[in-house]
Amino acid sequence: MHLGDARGMPTLIESLMASENGARFMSFETLKHYTHEDIQFDPEAPLAARQEAYLKWRRWWRGQSEHFKVNVRAAQIDAEIRM
To answer: How many angstroms separate the CA atoms of 39 and 5, rounded?
Structure first.
């Protein structure tokens, strides 16, 4: 996924339900980085809690997908701070 390209969002959201904790963690971190949304997700939470958060992300995306634009500058600043 390139900075500014939102086509990978559905895949990231689906990956929140991956069997591997690391994949869930990376997907959530990437979602936060690109969206700046405050939808919580704990990759180590029990399945029911993860599923509830996953569904919130899916609902959010359904409402945003047609108009969503990555705030490229904000994502760049986040990336610079993480280094």
So the answer is: 20
